[in-house]
């Protein structure tokens, strides 16, 4: 048993892949649930707009275009974003695992170290990209943006964990 209290321990290498898989699972669940897209919620907003505007000659055309957008655009948007976000989550884990599986040694130690670092950098980059993509989806879709907050927080906490794995690889350069 460790003498360091659990709250002060550094995350272990095995926690990082577990965290990344949890993020991937959450992204998949969010995508399966259409990112929280609520057609009825937008329809209520459209109806409120229609009821509130009285003396406007193009009201019917605007309401019709809002309904058409609700019917077609958002469905296509959800389908595209499902593919994009799930692919990003897959790439994060793939890059992390490729980088974390390289153990530099021998004469090629420096080039293997660089390759390991490159894959871990890619994983970090994909984490930042996924975070931005989820923020974009939350802003674009008529949904509850609060359901994205905890996932974005998880992504933000995973980034330093991957950086820690990357930093721990410096030990391979010190071996002589």
Spell out the key features of this protein:
176 residues; mainly alpha; 6 helices; 0% strand
Q: Taking all residues together, what is the mean pLDDT?
A: 86
Shape: elongated
- Assign a percent range to the helix content: over 70%
Distinct helical segment count: 6
How would you classify the helix and strand content by structural class?
mainly alpha
SSE run: HHHHHH
End-to-end separation in angstroms reads: 32 Å
Strand content: under 5%
Largest sheet at a glance? none
Count of structural domains: 1
The unreliable regions are none
Give me the count of strands: 0
Radius of gyration: 23 Å
Short recap of the structure:
The protein has 176 residues and is an all-alpha fold. The protein contains 6 helices and no strands. Helix 4 runs antiparallel to helix 5 (146-168).
Topology summary:
Layout: H1 15-32, H2 39-52, H3 59-100, H4 109-140, H5 146-168, H6 171-174
Give structural notes.
The protein has 176 residues and is mainly α. The protein has one domain (21-170). The chain is 76% helix and 0% strand. The radius of gyration is 23 Å and the shape is elongated. It starts with 14 loop residues before the first helix and ends with a helix. The model has no long low-confidence stretch (mean pLDDT 86).
